[in-house]
């Protein structure tokens, strides 16, 4: 399944297990993992030196909204900013894509 909206997209990449080697933490149980990232080179061409900062701010705004939606749907969500960069980025079939967040989503813990 691919959904394209301008330069933004939601793309089915693979089974979630293929991203487990990017996690630093053990025991994360999830059904779906969103990968939030950007192409810093492209953003910097448009916004100059502020591009890096804008990318991180926007990722934070998106993550906040994802947390609110997951909470309203009674889903568990765990935004992770500390991961093995190369293990996450090598799975993305986009040139110069850099992962900012790994976002595992699953059942809410009881």
UniProtKB/TrEMBL annotation:
Signal peptide: none
SUPFAM superfamilies per record: FMN-dependent nitroreductase-like
The species this protein was found in: Alkalicoccobacillus plakortidis
Protein name, entry field: Nitroreductase family protein
Pfam families hit by this protein: Nitroreductase
Domain Nitroreductase: from-to ranges: 21-106
InterPro entries the UniProt entry points to: Nitroreductase, Nitroreductase-like
């Amino acid at each position: 399944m691919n959904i394209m909206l301008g330069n933004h997209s939601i793309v089915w990449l693979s089974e979630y297990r293929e991203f487990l080697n990017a996690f630093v933490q053990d025991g994360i149980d999830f059904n779906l993992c969103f990968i939030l990232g950007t192409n810093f080179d492209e953003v910097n061409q448009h916004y100059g030196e502020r591009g890096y900062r804008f990318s991180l701010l926007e990722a934070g705004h998106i993550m906040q909204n994802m947390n609110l939606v997951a909470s309203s749907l009674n889903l568990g969500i765990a935004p992770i900013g500390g991961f093995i960069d190369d293990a996450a980025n090598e799975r993305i079939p986009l040139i110069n894509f850099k992962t900012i967040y790994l976002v595992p989503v699953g059942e809410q813990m009881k």
